[in-house]
From TrEMBL, chains A, B:
Spans traversing the lipid bilayer: none
Catalytic activity of the protein: L-aspartate + ATP = 4-phospho-L-aspartate + ADP
UniProt-recorded name of the protein: Aspartokinase
InterPro entries xref list: AceGlu_kinase-like_sf, ACT-like_dom_sf, ACT_Aspartokinase, ACT_dom, AKIII_YclM_N, Asp/Glu/Uridylate_kinase, Asp_kin_monofn, Asp_kinase
PANTHER family attached to this UniProt entry: ASPARTATE KINASE, ASPARTOKINASE 3
Keyword Kinase applies: yes
Function per UniProt: Catalyzes the phosphorylation of the beta-carboxyl group of aspartic acid with ATP to yield 4-phospho-L-aspartate, which is involved in the branched biosynthetic pathway leading to the biosynthesis of amino acids threonine, isoleucine and methionine.
Pathway: Amino-acid biosynthesis; L-threonine biosynthesis; L-threonine from L-aspartate: step 1/5; Amino-acid biosynthesis; L-lysine biosynthesis via DAP pathway; (S)-tetrahydrodipicolinate from L-aspartate: step 1/4; Amino-acid biosynthesis; L-methionine biosynthesis via de novo pathway; L-homoserine from L-aspartate: step 1/3
Entry annotated with the keyword Amino-acid biosynthesis: yes
SUPFAM superfamilies, alphabetized: ACT-like (SSF55021), Carbamate kinase-like (SSF53633)
Amino acid sequence: MKVVKFGGSSLASGEQFKKVLQIILSDTARKIVVVSAPGKRSQSDKKVTDLLIENAEYFLKYREINEGLLEQVVNRYSSIAEEVGIRTDIVSEIKADIKTKLQKDFKNEERYIDEVKASGEDNNARLLAAYFKEQGKEACYINPFEAGLFVTDQPGNAQVLPESYENLSSLKERSGILVFPGFFGYSKDGQILTFSRSGSDITGSILANAIKAELYENFTDVDAVYSANPFVVKNPKEIRELTYREMRELSYAGFSVLHDEALIPAFRAGIPVNIKNTNNPSAPGTKIVNTRTNTNGPVIGIASAKGFCSIYVSKYLMNRELGFGRKLLHILEDYNLSYEHSPSGIDDISIILREDGFGKEIEEAIISRIFNELEADEVKIERDLALIMVVGEGMRHNVGTTARASKALAGSGVNIEMINQGSSEVSMMFGVKEVDEKRAVISLYEEFFVSIPV
Amino acid sequence: MKVVKFGGSSLASGEQFKKVLQIILSDTARKIVVVSAPGKRSQSDKKVTDLLIENAEYFLKYREINEGLLEQVVNRYSSIAEEVGIRTDIVSEIKADIKTKLQKDFKNEERYIDEVKASGEDNNARLLAAYFKEQGKEACYINPFEAGLFVTDQPGNAQVLPESYENLSSLKERSGILVFPGFFGYSKDGQILTFSRSGSDITGSILANAIKAELYENFTDVDAVYSANPFVVKNPKEIRELTYREMRELSYAGFSVLHDEALIPAFRAGIPVNIKNTNNPSAPGTKIVNTRTNTNGPVIGIASAKGFCSIYVSKYLMNRELGFGRKLLHILEDYNLSYEHSPSGIDDISIILREDGFGKEIEEAIISRIFNELEADEVKIERDLALIMVVGEGMRHNVGTTARASKALAGSGVNIEMINQGSSEVSMMFGVKEVDEKRAVISLYEEFFVSIPV
């Protein structure tokens, strides 16, 4: 039994609906279909979710519906219905549903927006189920409340409640294809609450866990995850199989194919995830698994991310001071700053963190606290750093990988500001100046994917 | 004006006393002489300090003096007096002094031992001053209490009190050579308290700071600090000049020429330290300075130390959890464990710490707390690790140093368990298995000191 999730671009038009039907029909194990709201049909198009937010914000401001904005949303559904040739009374139902939600009496603006924007997925699921049925297939729309997908009362960032898994597990007893709207659940008292953005991935992952699916298929619009950013490296190699750990390390540094929080429920249940292309379903895609056989050398992918900075602190004999590092981290926490890494020398330590949230004012406050409370000898801030991740299972035990990587960087004139290696068994991290980022990625890609291994 | 400190082996015999006199006379700037207790004359010899501790422990156990043990101490002084041909009544004074201290009424055993063992330095200073005077030089013994060297009331680990610097500064007004016993100071109420072991280096450093000496000369029994451990690398290069930071990083990983806490007072006053050989005083020795001109490539020394272990903790999405690292460090602190380094991946972190103090019982307690309190997915302990430090000023901004180092390690088949680079500007740290330690040091020495740079 498989859970199959389709992203917004996979359900953006009637043509896409037809592809989805073919995909579902081609494999009888595809039992639960998780549906996103219609996405962009072209670069200049708008996503239905964004249109719905505009509708909600207009109503909040003027206390009346903007009919033009509402029509834009309804048109998306009606053009799909027309294209696939199904009865158009469903479009009137969708319009009525959105109008009801827009005009609903509400106490809390965040919840109001959650309810309106979730209708994008909900109505698309209804439309897809109707289409399947008109094609003579046994299919039905599943309402998340009736199915028991209960979540915490956090608008825009709801977390699944543990009991939901038990509730949802009974879905596997139902006959036919089940079409389930992604992105939201319900509080116990029936209030709609959405997951964080890209939350349809989360819905799919929860369902895969609940029914103990053999596979969670995640259909999107790329053939595979690539071994490097295609905007930096020309025609990077596709990755066939990667582990959860590798996926996490890559997505940390800019690979954004899958919403990584979404993977937790599937990861906990050990369910493999297959990223596939709706527009090219015969391509094998990329499979995310617990363990894989290592066939391609030590490195599977090279990722990079900008926007980091470092706080360097030195103090003579710091090393002898019990609690120094912990106190330093506590100061950052007081400003709600999460640190990323902290390489250390004997009498110095650097804290690497993301630059957003670390403005000039906070910087000054933190520097003065480090001097005053920790009696540091020196504090220095370095901005505009990029982190380069070289990722691959088993890398740690591969003699010479570091040498190859650092030689490649040196060869292209990139200075290594920081190396963090030794905790993760699947990655090596280099800190470089942002201006060196692209050069660093290209040189590493050439070393590990193009040149003949030494 | 210079402060000159002589170690135990430099004052172990009459022959050594004569060398010390020549050294002092050869430079009129050598004003304050800091004296250790007589050390070993040969490999099988005992240090006076150790003999004194035996005397004290015997007395504590049996409440009477062991005359044989006492004679062993007195003999050391009398044989020096004989050799250098000075009046022997001073030896009777020394014997009387030690007897008084051994039989003194005491309340606290630790303080008792402090007082007895400090007499080793104190009497050697008296003896050296007497010898200088008999040689017709203007010289006098300085009592630390009268000079105002006040310390905290911590037996065996006394810390200098700030006011001491002001008190001691007036020593520079005194005429002649001042002979000052190392290793101890006094509490305000006149109780003798010793610094930590090798504390004569501390006394010298405090005095250098107090009189704002132009140089602090530290005479010992080696010609210089070497660029690598001579027991590992054959005939390693001598280091002419190294910075305080370099010294600290090297001494952290096994270079033990100077007691590194001892350097703090000199370091704070920016006073250079010259390590020289009593037995070869014309050799330039090694100078420890604030800044040096970099002439010898990026690396100045390679050190290594055994006895480390790592605690590896992984948790899916750890990276998103504010305070995870801090809480982890707090658990270690509860067991009084100081951590050395903490390389981190995205969802994992390793804590490197020294193995002593981290027994099996504490290991189990910590593992269970990490699982319970931090809800980690996995916790692993790795023991028998060695840290290799590659040290040199300016290394950080030298493109390619990492590549050279990691290539050298790979070339000798050493797997790198951990790299910690990016905080210290003067070092690169590699974690390897203990069995690989020697091979690692040799290969790095060959890369940076023997082979022609790439």
